[in-house]
Amino acid sequence: MANYTAADIKALREKTAAGMMDVKKALDEADGDMAKAEEILRVKGQKGVTKREGRTTSNGLVTARAGDGEGTLVEVLCETDFVAKGERFGALAEQVLTQAVATKAADADALLASTLEDGKSVKDLLDEANATIGEKIEVKRVSRLEGEHVVSYLHKTSPDLPAQIGVLVATTGGDDTTARDVAMHIAAFSPSVLSRDEIDAATVENERRVAEATAKEEGKPEAALPKIVEGRVNGFFKENVLLEQPFAKDAKKTVGKILDEAGAQATGFARYRVGS
């Protein structure tokens, strides 16, 4: 019987994020040699990289960095929450974020193609992580913002998981406190656009048609239809447009009003929720 302990299994699992049975098999094959077992896991993992390409990645984390008028937000995904909350995955995500900041990457493709100091690409780094950890790992999304003030906000939806929601906000005027309050609002209320001008006319017209058809189905008076339809379309804007949403800390005011009172203007934002 191979010479290893339960503590060795635990240590190797934490180091590689591999499954318990895979770790035990590797230790058996390596006759308890930790370094050799880790190598075995890596080799076997590398053989399975192609097989894992079709797997679903619905767990992971978002991470961000902001300062000096710029900010970067990255979503890194994996298959299970066990891997997502592991130190190895967290360290990998921070390495990916650091590279995104250094290269000013504005999308995932640019980041994956960029070269690290050791000559490997970020894609190569992820392939190695796929092999070692034994799960599909991917950089799903990357956003970069520039502005007078750029702040980031990360939110945990569960205390035992890394941040699942991440936000970047760029503003002019005002201060970082106002921008951070808006970032927290975005995390909670998930607007889809900054202003109603960003919603295409076809979408608005479709909302108008649906609102009118619904009102008629409800038996509303013909004379009241224009006002009802307008009210429901405005409700659509309030749900989706950041500047028109009731502010999280004071629902009597819109986000736009809060920014105006602070002498600020939002120029852009990005919001990610893991897996959505």
From TrEMBL:
Pfam families: EF_TS
Superkingdom classification of source: Bacteria
Primary site of residence: cytoplasm
Statement: the UniProt record of this protein carries the keyword Cytoplasm: yes
GO MF terms, alphabetically ordered: translation elongation factor activity
An annotated GO cellular component: cytoplasm
Involved in Mg(2+) ion dislocation from EF-Tu: annotated segments: 80-83
Keyword presence, Protein biosynthesis: yes
Domain called Translation elongation factor EFTs/EF1B dimerisation: residue spans: 71-275
Record InterPro entries: EF-Ts_dimer_sf (IPR036402), Transl_elong_EFTs/EF1B (IPR001816), Transl_elong_EFTs/EF1B_dimer (IPR014039), UBA-like_sf (IPR009060)
Compartments, as annotated in UniProt: Cytoplasm
Keyword annotations of the record: Cytoplasm, Elongation factor, Protein biosynthesis
Family note: Belongs to the EF-Ts family.
Protein task: Associates with the EF-Tu.GDP complex and induces the exchange of GDP to GTP. It remains bound to the aminoacyl-tRNA.EF-Tu.GTP complex up to the GTP hydrolysis stage on the ribosome.
Protein's name in the database: Elongation factor Ts
Organism, as annotated: Phycicoccus duodecadis
Lineage: Bacteria, Bacillati, Actinomycetota, Actinomycetes, Micrococcales
